[in-house]
Amino acid sequence: MSKRLVVALSGGVGGAKLALGLSRILPADDLLVVANTGDDFEHLGLNISPDIDTLTYALAGLDNPATGWGRRDETWSFMDSIGALGGEDWFRLGDRDLALHVERTRRLRSGQTLSEVTADICRRLGIGARVVPMSDDRVRTRVRSETGWIDFQDYFVRQQCRPVVHALTFDGVTLARPHDDIMAALRSGDVRAVIVCPSNPFISVEPILAIPGIREAIAGSGAPVVAVSPIIGGQAVKGPTAKMMRELGLEASAAGVAARYGDLLDGYIIDHADADGVAAIGARVTIANTLMTSLEDREMLARVTLGAADALASRR
Amino acid sequence: MSKRLVVALSGGVGGAKLALGLSRILPADDLLVVANTGDDFEHLGLNISPDIDTLTYALAGLDNPATGWGRRDETWSFMDSIGALGGEDWFRLGDRDLALHVERTRRLRSGQTLSEVTADICRRLGIGARVVPMSDDRVRTRVRSETGWIDFQDYFVRQQCRPVVHALTFDGVTLARPHDDIMAALRSGDVRAVIVCPSNPFISVEPILAIPGIREAIAGSGAPVVAVSPIIGGQAVKGPTAKMMRELGLEASAAGVAARYGDLLDGYIIDHADADGVAAIGARVTIANTLMTSLEDREMLARVTLGAADALASRR
């Protein structure tokens, strides 16, 4: 009998696109999306979980196709008003988006866990797949630049990724416990594939892999691990992945990302634009269209990725 | 040398109209507006101070002339979104208005007092007059109806004042300390007038008067106390004042309000519509146009009220 569960590790925009594709071709019970929470932060007294939010909006069909983050049909009256009251206005919070942050913050303060809040909101928005935070414990990505250590959202949003990154750390990660559903899935013996979504390796995927126990559980799951390259033609589709790779002394290429993941990967999906880099990649490579513009692109890449995983499984 | 300070006791909509009138005819340093905080509540995890907000928006020229509460040029995307996430949506919070609640909540949690937050926000919005909460301590108005005691906003907004009111209480008031500025002003020997704004006596003015020390300090200030009737022609301009008076066994009239305030009042301003009730009023009555529709109405009523106070002072 074939194995059932697909575990997808995801950050925000790019990862959410593939997660949506997977959610459309798999039965709801078969997909577990593990969201990075290293980007989470407290802002204006609100608990904000950017990657969970982007996944939630994408899976609910509420995402903003123009920005990749936030909600569609958004208005900005709150942002127009907060500055005059002395509030910080460098992080853009739309009026509709704000409802999620306010309601989550209220529930967290009342004692619910982040995963409970996430599960309930996904259910209310009609999302079938499970989305779980990598951990209910606090993990915070920080970046070391010329001026010292800075909080991730300070680097990412306020300074728009301008600082040169010398190092990254995930505060709290050594004490963080992986979400129970992740470990239960990986230990179930029923994992069809572990998919590493096309998210930034350093700030989206590695925080998940750094949670004690997760990397070992992936290796022990018996499932093929297939990543989709976030680099197309030497460029990141969105965000600072390529810039960050160069700053960290790595080759800014699809092959460079595969090298970074190392023996975690069994399979790797790259774009046609990167086909001449195949020789340098240790994992088994599949060449596909990885730029997800349409909904069909998302579904097709999900099929290709699962197909690659299934092919790897059949060779074992 | 004539006395300088005008201390105005105010609730929301009606009180804020007269406070604006006073602020336009007095030097900024001469006006102290004391805001009721018995209506304050925590909602969606946010600290909301309806009367302070209405005063702030009115004095800053940001008020919504259609509703009397909230901000002008408001949008409602947050409200459109919160219900689907499981958040309560019976209390209408506009997107611009929300900026004030979020920023205040953030500051209160960081350790600022309500009066510090209020003062800073008033300054940022260019309000010259001082607006102070009656107390930085927590006071909560509750209402007893047929079904027992309920929170004020539950009665006022969720149930739209439908329950019959048998009694009111101000939880916490016996331990609440009056704001220092109120006591300093009342004890300064420099009070020109204490104005009781045309707000609901039971739920806007009496919580202020119930703070230990305030009623005595008003009496001891040596200043004339002049109220403006919130009842015009036997009707409340806005809100449940008349309904509440009948339910509490009082006469729903301008004279009934004066009787409720009793010997607190030296002077009382009533509308032309209520002129035939003069004989029943103990305080010295001035008849004026008390329906404040235009900005000129607000200024004129402020002048009439101060004039009445000055006339009372000259007779002492």
Explain what this protein looks like in three dimensions.
The structure is a homodimer of 316-residue chains. Chain A has 316 residues and is an alpha/beta fold. The first copy, chain A, has one domain (5-136, 182-314): Rossmann fold (3-Layer(aba) Sandwich). The first copy, chain A, has helices at 13-25, 50-60, 77-82, 95-109, 114-124, 152-158, 180-186, 201-210, 214-220, 241-247, 254-261, 295-314, and strands at 5-10, 31-35, 41-43, 46-48, 130-133, 140-145, 148-151, 167-171, 191-196, 225-228, 231-232, 235-236, 267-271, 284-288. A seven-stranded parallel beta sheet of chain A has the order 5-2-1-9-10-13-14, sandwiched between helices. Chain A has a three-stranded antiparallel beta sheet with strand order 7-6-8. A two-stranded antiparallel sheet of chain A has the order 3-4. Chain A is globular. The model of chain A has no long low-confidence stretch (mean pLDDT 96). Chain A binds chain B through residues 44-46, 71, 73-75, 77-78, 80-82, 84-87, 94-96, 98-100, 102-103, 105-106, 109-110, 120-121, 124-125, and chain B through 44-46, 71, 73-75, 77-78, 80-82, 84-87, 94-96, 98-100, 102-103, 105-106, 109-110, 120-121, 124-125.
